[in-house]
Amino acid sequence: MTCIAQSKSLAIYDYRCRIGLGATPFVERHNRSSISFVRKGSFGYHTRGKYFELVAGSVLIGRAGDEYVCSHDHVCGDECLSFQLAPELVAAIGDDDTIWSVGALPPVPELMVVAELAEAAAARQSDVALDEAGLLMAARFVEIAGSTHRAKSAAAEQKPVVTATRDRRRAVEAALWLEEHAHQAIDLDRVSRQAGLSPFHFLRLFARVLGVTPHQYLVRCRLRHAARLLADPARSITDVAFDVGFADLSNFVRTFRRAAGVSPRVFRKAAKGERKILQERIAAYALG
User: Fold this and answer.
1) Nearest to 4 by CA among 121, 93, 155, 128
2) Using CB atoms within 10 A of its CB, is residue 1 exposed (0-12), middle (13-18) or buried (19+)?
3) Phi, psi of 167 (to 5 degrees)
4) Please, what is the Cα angle at 287 between 283 and 288, to 5 degrees?
5) Counting Cβ atoms within 10 Å, is residue 242 exposed (0-12), middle (13-18) or buried (19+)?
6) What is the pTM of this model?
7) How far apart (Å, rounded) are the C-alpha atoms in residues 209 and 202?
8) pLDDT tens readout for residues 230-242
9) How far apart are CA 64 and CA 101, in angstroms?
10) Are the C-beta atoms of 80 and 60 separated by less than 8 Å?
């Protein structure tokens, strides 16, 4: 765990876990309310009597004071970018207990693209200040959870998983495969064959374990990759769209706008450090 940015109200950590398969889990505690974006790997998360399988793009929500356990039954290692919020910041952006006790969210496009902006800032591939990107991430999460009840819906979708370990492993491994091959043309038949299941059974299993359908996860992987590439001014927006797997530029622009709230062109300007755009988005989410 490495602290990569810290202020009075917000600390941002780079978590890189290398715990091996089958390692004995142990109880930990959230010292602060937190929003942790899974950028690589997979792990199980147990808290408040609920269990979640987290893969790249998922978001772990920590409530200050809650105990939790992470398990590693499928792959070795995971990486997260974690935003730890001071109590005064939580109070400022929204301290509704129903928001901070959801446990985790499946890959949500509105958060994934913002997380990639923070990733670019952390990797110094963007002129955006990391603390500003972190504040935008926190405000966006509260806006989604509070205004649209997305968090409540996601929590309902991700009820404690009772499927067999083998089936949960199939779903997680399929998600890892989709993440790696998202730039290719993939349909349900292809990914279900990869998992060794019929399309019908695979669709039900994947959605039950991860909270989204395979196609939803595929599109969200593409959006996350696109957000990362848009930080590179050398790539045209058309090239980004095709490189991440969209076959149609207009579809990419529409889908990205729905997720980010702005067009790819405006998102790129924010990634290049045009602070006015970023500050307007923070104000819209935190005060609107």
Assistant:
1) 121
2) exposed
3) -70, -40
4) 100
5) middle
6) 0.81
7) 11
8) 988 889 999 999 9
9) 9
10) yes
Angle 120-214-230 from CA coordinates, rounded to 5°: 20
Identity of residue 130: L
Q: How far apart are CA 102 and CA 24, in angstroms?
A: 25
pLDDT band at residue 221 using 50, 70 and 90 as cut-offs: very high
Query: CA angle, corner 142, sides to 140 and 147, nearest 5?
Result: 100
3-class secondary structure per residue, the chain? CEEEEECCCEEEEEEEECCCCCCCCCEEECCCEEEEEEEEEEEEEEECCEEEEEECCCEEEECCCCEEEEECCCCCCEEEEEEEECHHHHHHHCCCHHHHCCCEECCCHHHHHHHHHHHHHHCCCCCCCHHHHHHHHHHHHHHHHHHCCHHHHHHHHCCCCCCCHHHHHHHHHHHHHHHHHCCCCCCHHHHHHHHCCCHHHHHHHHHHHHCCCHHHHHHHHHHHHHHHHCCCCCCCHHHHHHHCCCCCHHHHHHHHHHHHCCCHHHHHHHHCCCHHHHHHHHHHHHHC
90 vs 21: CA distance, rounded Å: 35
Residues 54 and 63: their CA atoms lie apart, in Å, by: 17
CA distance 17 to 12: 16
Closest Cα partner for 118 from 13, 192, 219, 26?
A: 13
DSSP bridge partners of 40:
79
Per-residue pLDDT of 130-189, as tens digits, reads: 887 888 888 888 888 765 444 455 444 444 445 677 888 899 999 999 999 999 999 999
